[in-house]
Amino acid sequence: MSDARAIMHDGLWRQNAGLVQLLGLCPVLVISSNVVNAVSLGLATCAVMMLSGMAVASLRRWIPQTLRVPIFMLIIATLVTVVDLLFSAYAHGLYRVLGIFIPLITTNCIVLARAEVFASRQPVARAALDGAAMGAGLTAVLAVLGALRELAAQGTLLSGIDLVFGAAARGWVIQVTPADAHYQFLLAALPPGAFFGLAFLIAGKSAWDRRIARRTGPAPLATVPDGAGG
Amino acid sequence: MLQALAAMGGLAVLLGALLGVAALRLRVAANPLVDRIDALLPQTQCAQCGYPGCRPYAEAIAAGEAQINQCPPGGDEGIRRLAGLLGQEFIPLNRAHGEAKPKRLAVIDERVCIGCTLCIQACPVDAIVGAARQMHTVIASECTGCELCVAPCPVDCIEMVAPGETPASWRWRYPVIPLKVSA
Amino acid sequence: MRTSPFLSAATPLQRVMLKVLAALLPGIALQVWLFGIGVLAQLALASVAALATEALCLKLRGYPVRRFVSDGSALVCAWLLALSLPPLAPWWLAVLGSMFAIALGKQVYGGLGQNTFNPAMVGFVVLIVSFPAQMSHWAAPLAAGPAYLDASAQLAHIFGGVLPHGIGFDALASATPLDAARTAVRQGLPGPDGMLGGTSAWLALGWLVGGLFLLQQRLIPWQLPCGFLGALAVLAALFHWADPAAHAGALFHLGSGAALLGAFFIVTDPVTAPTTARGRIIYAASAGALTYLIRAFGNFPDGVAFAVLIMNMATPLLDQLTQPPVFGRKAGRAGRS
Amino acid sequence: MPFDYLLVLVGAALVNNVVLTRILGLCPFMGVSRKLTSSVGMALATAFVLTLASGASWLIEQALQAWQLTYLRTLAFIVTIAAMVQFTELFIHATSPALYQVLGIYLPLITTNCAVLGIPLLNAQAQHGFVESLLFGLGSALGFSLVLILFAAVRERQEGADTPLAFKGTPLALITAGLMSLAFMGFTGMAR
Amino acid sequence: MSRILHPFHGGIRPPEHKRHSNGSRIGSLPLPSQLVLSLRQHIGQPARPIVVPGDTVLKGQTLAVPEGRISSALHAPTSGRIVAIEPRSVPHPSGLTELCVVLVPDGQERWVERMPFDWRTAGIEAVAQQLCAMGVVGLGGAGFPTHLKLGSGRGIETLVINGAECEPYITCDDRLMRERAADLVAGIQILRTLLRAQTVLVGVEDNKPEAIEALQLACGGADIEVVALPTRYPSGGAKQLIRLLTGLEVPAGTRATELGVQCFNVGTVYALYRALEHGEPLISRIVTLTGAVARPGNVEALLGTPLDALMQHAGADDGVEGYLYGGPMMGFALPSLAAGLTKSGNCIVAKSPALFPPAPPPMPCIRCGDCAQVCPAELQPMDLYWFARARQFDRARERHLFDCIECGACAYVCPSHIPLVDYYRHAKAELWAADAAGQAADLARRRHQARQRRLEAAQQARAERRSPHAAPVPAVTSPAPVVLPPPQTDAPAPLDEKQARIAAALARAAARRDGAGQPPAAASAQPVADEAQPVADEKQARIEAAMARAAQRRAAQESRR
Amino acid sequence: MSTTAAGVRGALTLLAFALAATALLAGVWDLTRERAARSAHAARLALLAQVLPAHDNDPARDAWPLPAPQARRLGHAGPVPVYPARRNGTVVALALEVVAPDGYAGPIRLLVGVGRDGALLGVRVLAHRETPGLGDYIDAARSPWSSQFAGRTLGEPPEDGWAIRQDGGVFDATAGASVTPRAVVAALRRTLLVVRDHHAAWFAGRAS
Ligand SMILES: Cc1cc2nc3c(=O)[nH]c(=O)nc-3n(C[C@H](O)[C@H](O)[C@H](O)COP(=O)(O)O)c2cc1C
Ligand SMILES: Cc1cc2nc3c(=O)[nH]c(=O)nc-3n(C[C@H](O)[C@H](O)[C@H](O)COP(=O)(O)O)c2cc1C
Ligand SMILES: Cc1cc2nc3c(=O)[nH]c(=O)nc-3n(C[C@H](O)[C@H](O)[C@H](O)COP(=O)(O)O)c2cc1C
Ligand SMILES: Cc1cc2nc3c(=O)[nH]c(=O)nc-3n(C[C@H](O)[C@H](O)[C@H](O)CO)c2cc1C
Ligand code: SF4
Ligand code: SF4
Ligand code: SF4
Ligand code: SF4
Ligand code: FES
Fold first, then answer.
1. D105 in contact with F, Cβ within 8 Å
2. Is the pTM of this model over 0.80?
3. Annotation-wise, does E371 bind a ligand?
4. Domains in chain B, ordered, with CATH?
5. Which of C268, F25, F141, F184 is most solvent-facing, going by the fewest CB within 10 Å?
6. pLDDT tens digits, residue range F92-149?
7. Using the beta-carbon criterion (under 8 Å), do B96 and A67 form an inter-chain contact?
8. DSSP characters for chain B?
9. Is ipTM over 0.90?
């Protein structure tokens, strides 16, 4: 099913929210200071996107054009609040760490953008897949950025995992630099570090894309809309 | 629960009514963006962009359906202007639509022309004169170099030639300062 | 093809940079005299790291390495960074700072002349934010210090992190006047008495000599140092007048920290400062004011680096808003018919 | 008292700048900063809505707290903001077509600027009073406008630089934003 | 008495190098064996030749007449025979060729009849016409036709005579002022009367004391003020000179006349004097030969004199590595010495490495601001450079690129040795080209829209004709109002019908060829061939080949689909 | 469609969606409310447990508000809770929220446990703005620095020992960052003084 693959490819790479569309940047930059936070928020966003995609796609017949944006926002805000309530009940530690960034998924531009651009014109299944793919793409970026920053800042991976899986998970933390070296590079943990990290990720992607393009020759001819040229 | 429903319901009724009224009052004006985009296109009308002329392409850009890098006659400079107008990042010309090349003019080889008028029908800017069965000529000052007249000619008598350079038409070149040693 | 003019009378860029380096020498000499050989070690470390980073970046970007590395701008950047480091700082501080300064502050932007932020200050700020502990360990000046480290001991500390037996760093450390002043004020103790800030005032004199040389050589416009020092002094005097107990006076502020070094060598970086006369005044005066505010109310002891970076981001807008009227287009000037 | 208010204003505008310190509202910051003129339009529009939203959301928050419905906060805020943005658009269109021409296309984008929701949420979290809320909103709006306009001017200049190809465009803008954020750390400690 | 000067912003003081060439009197040159006269010796449209190869002409006889509003005439510098009118290389940075009249002197110097012009009674328009016919253009560098600078007789307040000669090396105006001061003053008096100027100011840089003295002497009691200017390049720029002398600033895009001032170069005034008082058209000019030459100095040379003859006369050294046309600040490197001297050729400098050490390779701009400090137009040259380099030409225009007078002061002081003026010239050229392209696009848009409308109307008409209820339609063969090209007149022919018609056309063409063996009427415009038959054959062959090509192409297209 | 009709239609549509959304939310809230409150409570208890000895009551539920005058001595503007830990009904320890106002970069909020014998049981930093990497070693998550206070009383060390080493006291402090620990030590000492002053009442389980 190449259609689904195309949607996945778009979401994960070609139209990646964090690297290409540059939407939903605020949580990406703030919450990516370690892997656990990053992935948690990424998955929450992913869930909201999938659900809102489905909701919008299934309800689109009843949504008047002029009230589109407020109603989309209504749907998204509701779903986000549901997620927020669930976090507060079942992952309280994480709930405190993520703070206002859970409610802020509401205004995460990528959610509304997908609702508007994709979900409001597509069947439910595709909308769900698109939401999931976009969310997964965002989560992937968050995970990579989180890992890079956590490594650079404190030389660990998965610190804070106990907030998700309880105190038992404390041992899962991977100490990359020797603990007694007190390694730290604070810049990486601060917002500027997030900006630099994302910049280098995007630069890397663009360099990679260019290399691929060089290897495979110029892009294939764009499809000409039917009836054009006459 | 009831309180919640009442509160949100009240808010929604208030805002919904406001917006409902607002939506009607909002006039949908013609999109002035199309004109501004069209003004930046070279008007060669060559259809290389994949649209049947410059204006349709302008409309497609305004509607967000087309990229700004599909017009070879406009070249990088044209893309730069479009990017400036639309606040987008510059992207290089999409080679799939053709290469940017210096403007050339159509010249009809008058010894071969059979006067079939096919080229006249093809020319989007009426730059070819001549009546049926008469020899045809291109008005150089009005030819946009779109090459649309080349293909229909049954005897292949139309050639695209680059106008020669004279001191009057000569332009100062971009000062080439070899800073980079390799790309 | 090269066209007119066919004549040139400019001091070549390399010479400009060399003169800036030369202007730093009096201050460096004083700093070595005050703090010891460590200063030279930091200079050397930063220079090597900066040149190496510059060469690597140029190579990666495909530019002629020799020509651009030899333009001297990386050295200026490295020296200014090294001079703002604690003389006994561990070796990797200077190296890391220079790498960030050149790679992130300069080459990512396209190299010489294209950067938005002052590279040396980018390096400095990265360091002070990332390694506040190491960056605030200023040893006391040798002349006044409670303990004396000879050259080899200094180098041993810089490169090996070891101190002679029996001496802890606490024994060597001294708060710089700015730091001491703010710490005192925060704890309700009497602040400095408005006099010059001890030994660093001597240093200030060194930078002043170099700065005057640059002014005389017309390598820096007067608006920048004057605007900077003027705003700093006026604000300091104002606050001191309002509450002498809580705020040190103008002379103290001019004589301590990086005020004069900044005024003559950092605020004046041509690439990152505006080019119009009005823009330069606004830029430098704002930087001076911000320096004072950060010193007096912020968390960092010295504000020069932050103030300069903050104003760097205003430079393009200032340049645009302060365009002088072009010949024949001046309002109110005869000529508009 | 006036001094406290000034502190709130300056604190929100510079010390805890929405974009550079709180990291909110980045999408418009990155997206509408390629041209100085459009950034000025965006700054004006956002400043207006942000201030208005701070005031309106304070009212709503009072009601929600009175009825113990704070879990509806996000929902109520965002619906109000979305409606307010649309209404602003209408209002400007009706009263000043010239201004509308300038701001028109930026207005709808404001709804998804997370600063517009984030600042009211922070207001609610910090239990600010009405005047404080309004000033906090205004200060944040000023801070947003200031850095957006400066950033746009910086980016306009950078367009002409020999930036390495991989960094041209967005990566360089992000690095610049990062350095701006680093520079703004100089303000830390200057207000609560 | 000294006048209060109004110094302009910026400026530089390059080494003068005037001493090489200003020590000796204006010399002359033996008649060269050939004169190459470009038809574009001035700004504007080139002149239209009215002689043909083979004609013999007298000295001063008109060779070409002005074409269009901004143009000027061209005359034979000496008597002789026109041997060719053909593209020859001209003094232009491009090194391209342009239409030139080539004249071989007969050595007899026979003049046409020369008649002084009664400029006192003739109206100013008549005088202007006479100057145009005499080919007088500005000799200060730009070559703007002088008759256009006289205005329409409204008169001006201040007449400024430009004797500044601020560029290094050039001394032709200096020598002119020293040696022909009396004629020059007579010319100034003519201009003052014509323009009804109240004040006359002659600006001369104070590094030419002899010229100042000579002029003052010649002025005698006349109310002409000779003002010594501080030596500072580019005080000779018209706007800078006007500002210096009067304090008025002429904005870009405005003419000085609007402010009541007009400025003429001394050489121009002298030429005007010769043209009006002696009836001599502009056929020669004083040119400085200097630089790395054995005998630097000034010569009065006939227009069209090959530049290598001039350089031979001056004795160019062996070490010369190129020549500049004009001074080192504003001139350009000559691609070849084969061109002939033009009216704006005030100086030729032979370059040697000693005088012109090679510029070090350019470095990036560090925004030091030195250039802004010296820019007489008060621009921010580094910004213009930044935008021009990034090809953001519109931004450069916003920053007043077109106020730049290309004086080169900025590049002179740039520590990074950036050829700034090159960038400005490039940017200006691109902007002009873009403007032209924009106009062409507007034209194309209008024509395209007209065509669309016409086609729509035609379609509608057809639709109406086809509809059964339509009124009986006149048997139209040419429906819609036909504009320039007769459009496809017949009703839409089905494809095969069209093909048939093409075939018919081909057949017709073949028949015509076979029958009369005459070239088609239109072909007579072609360079005439001697024999018809080969042409016909050739045409046949061509058509066949072309048809084969076309068929091939179509086949290829088909297969691609 | 008239303007009013459009208004009514728009209002109704939005109303329908809003009601559905609210209903959904209210439902979910109802379902999670209990659990969320329990989670929050548990988090609070876990934190208190770090500074309190073993106990058999729920200190969070048993907390009483500290009146303003005493709260002010601990650096607060208004009332704050005091958390008692009881074993078999007797109060064995108290946990207090304390503010050290003079940290390097602003106030430092601490949670301090004090035993019946007047000894410090534990110190946890709730919130601070000290320089990361320099002043933040007071945070137990960063370094064990704060554990040195366990067992300290007003007499042990004696009064002039209640200071950091640099100032002649007994408590460690990182060289180059003495402002922060100074503030903490002073705040702890103030806390012990306040507790001593109200020892009788508080450990009897009374507010004052
Ligand atoms: C940008 C810059 C920032 C500096 N920052 C500090 C600082 O934060 N603290 C400091 O003590 N010295 C700083 N210095 C070093 C001072 O210029 C000066 O060398 C030092 O304060 C003299 O030490 P003293 O005051 O102990 O005599 C800085 C220098 C520069 C160039
Ligand atoms: C930078 C610059 C320098 C010039 N220097 C001189 C000069 O020294 N002498 C001069 O006669 N014209 C000079 N010109 C030309 C004048 O601007 C102006 O064109 C001339 O004086 C007008 O007189 P004309 O039309 O008679 O040539 C210079 C122009 C420029 C742009
Ligand atoms: C950027 C910066 C941040 C600092 N942050 C702290 C801090 O959070 N806590 C602290 O106690 N000292 C901090 N200091 C150091 C203080 O300014 C002061 O020098 C130090 O506390 C004096 O301690 P000492 O007597 O041990 O040298 C910081 C210094 C700098 C330069
Ligand atoms: C007067 C002058 C001052 C300079 N100041 C600095 C400076 O403060 N920091 C720096 O990195 N480079 C400085 N440079 C060097 C150079 O301009 C700088 O590295 C550029 O920013 C690199 O593009 C200076 C150069 C000159 C001529
Ligand atoms: S490619 Fe360009 S010139 Fe050709 S039709 Fe399209 S827009 Fe017009
Ligand atoms: S003559 Fe040919 S090339 Fe020229 S505009 Fe017409 S169709 Fe295009
Ligand atoms: S003189 Fe050269 S280096 Fe200096 S600002 Fe001008 S162009 Fe740039
Ligand atoms: S060439 Fe142009 S920009 Fe340069 S100094 Fe002259 S007028 Fe100014
Ligand atoms: S996520 Fe914050 S503005 Fe888009």
1. no
2. yes
3. yes
4. 32-97 (1.10.15.40), 102-164 (3.30.70.20)
5. F141
6. 999 999 998 888 878 899 999 999 888 899 899 988 888 777 788 888 877 888 889 8
7. no
8. -HHHHHHHHHHHHHHHHHHHHHHHH------HHHHHHHHHS------TTSSSSHHHHHHHHHTT-S-S---TTTHHHHHHHHHHHHT-------GGG-------EEEE-TTT-----HHHHH-TT--EE--TTS--EE-GGG-----TTTTT-TT--EEEEPPPP-TTT--PPP------S--
9. no
